[in-house]
Amino acid sequence: MRRLMLKGLDLRKPMNERKLAILKIQTGILKIIVEKLLEKGFYWMLPVILSKSTDPLWPDPDFSIEKKIEIEIYGEKVSTMQSMIVQKRVLVSLGPEKIFILSPNIRIEKRDRAATGKHLYEFTQFEVEIAYAKMHDIFRIYEELITESTEYVKKNLSHELEILGRDLKTPQPPFKVYKRSELEERYGNSWQDEISKIVEDPIWVTGIPRQFYDYEDPETGEWRNYDLILPEGYGEVISGAEREYEYEKLVKKLERDGLEKSSYKILLDLAKEGLLKPSAGAGLGIERFVAYIAGAAHVAEVQPFPRIPGIVPDI
Ligand code: ASN
Is the Cβ atom of 241 under 6 angstroms away from ligand 1? Predict the structure, then answer.
C-alpha cells in the first residue's frame, strides 16, 4: 500500500502525467458542480474548521473513528470539523435557504481503513442544504451534478482520460433507489461493498439508522435518509437526509444516542423557538468522486498531500 501510494508521488520531484491528469479532472468537476448550483441561485458559503458543534458521526453503521480531535482555545473546548451538518442547518434556517460549501473534514479513521482504498483522514465534502426540500429534490440535484460533470470530463478532458486508461460511462438518471433493509437481507452486513461491485450505474440507498439529525418517520419508523453508492467498488460517495427539526424529537434522539446536548445548543435553541426549518441536504466526498471518474486505485491518489489512515507524511 505504502509503496503504491509513493509511486509517482515523491514530493521532491515534479508530478507525473497521471497525477496531473487527475488534478485537471478534479478542476473540471469542481468548475461544473459550482457553476450548476450558482445557476440555480445557491449561496456559496465558506467553511469553518473549529467549533463547539460538529457531527458526532455516531451512531452510524460505518463508524470507525480512532479519536475525535478536541483542543482548547481561549479557554474553551472546540473540535475540528467532522462535518458541517449543524452549521448547514443553522444557515438555511436563518437566511440563505439554498447553500453549498466546500468543507474540509477531519476524521481520524482507524488505521486498518488504509487498505479499503476509500478512506482518508482529511477530505473535502461538497455540502448542500436546502430549506423545505425533500429527499427527491436532493436526488435530482446530485444526479445532475454527477452526469453533467461526467459528460464535461468525457468531452473536454478525453486526453487526460486516455493517460489514465479510463473508459468512462455516463450514468443514466434517475438512479435506482433501494432500501437498506432489502440489501442487508440479500447481501448481509457488507451490502455496501457487495452492491458497489455489482451495479452498473450509481444507486441510492435509503432507510439507514444513524445520527440524530436525520429524519425518522414516527409512523413507519423509516429513516428518510440516503447514500449514493458508486459502481466498480468505489462505494459510498454521498450521504444525506431529510432532517429532524422538532425540539422534542431532537432532544429524545440526542439522549438515546448518549450525546451531550450542550454541543448542539444553537440547533436546539432554534428548534425550541420553532425557527429551525425543515430541510434536506447531503455531502459528496470530492476525492472519492474524482477517484471514480479518474479510475484511481486509491482515493489518496487524488490528493496532492495524501492523508491515508495511519500514515502521517512529512508535508
Ligand atoms: N454531509 C452529510 C449530510 O449532509 C453528513 C455527514 O457527512 N456525516 O447529511
Answer: yes
Say if strands 279-285 and 122-131 run parallel, antiparallel, or are unpaired: antiparallel
For cell 492523508, the residue is 307
55 Cβ below 6 A of ligand 1: yes
CA 129 to ligand 1: nearest atom: 4
Nearest to 139 by CA among 102, 169, 174, 182: 174
Residue 88 burial (10 A CB sphere; 0-12, 13-18, 19+): buried
**Which cell numbers hold the place of 284?**
459528496
> What residues contact residue 116 under an 8 Å CB cut-off, 6+ apart?
235
Contact between 211 and 59 (Cβ < 8 Å): yes
Q: How far is the CA of 238 from the centre of ligand 1 (A)?
A: 8
Query: How far out from the chain centre does Cα 221 lie?
Result: 24
**Which residue is it, cell 477517484?**
291
> Check: CATH 3.30.930.10 for 17-302?
yes
16 alpha carbon to ligand 1 midpoint, in Å? 34
pLDDT in tens, 29-83: 999 999 999 999 999 999 999 999 999 999 988 899 999 999 999 999 999 999 9
Element (H, E) at 87: helix 85-94
Is the whole model's pTM more than 0.70, yes or no? yes
